[in-house]
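User: MarR family winged helix-turn-helix transcriptional regulator. Structure?
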Amino acid sequence: MKNQVDKVNKSPDADKVFEAIHTVMHLYRAGRSQVFREDERGITHMESRVLDYFAQHPDATLSDLVAHSGRDKAQLTRLIRGLRDKAFLEAREDAQDRRAVRLQLSKEGRALQRQLKKTGSRILEQAVEGLSEKQCSELVALLKIVQGNLKRED
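Assistant: Predicted structure:
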């Protein structure tokens, strides 16, 4: 009788792929967290992600960030409050909807975000050291397939 692979309960290739992805992300976050701990401002990984978002989407709202990130609104509210307290984010009332608050980086926030981006770029360059441009493109293409598979509804 021919051996059949149990695709439901056994997927060693998928396990290996996701273990590798998990390890890469863990090492990347650990590297960034180390840099943030060494910074006198004590920015966390998630705070840096919020700064990145508002650098790319000035005048966005908390609701915009929640929709983009998929994170818990209460968690993001606390992060934003902390970044405002540290004077890295500024808020203003929306002209059309007075209930909405528009957020943007302050001058200090822009300077910090540029510094963190520069540090993050060094870590990213270290991560792809030894890979050719073609290999990087192939890896991105493969990961986009994985993303598409995960977004696909069965």
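The chain has a mean pLDDT of 87. The two ends are 31 Å apart (CA to CA).
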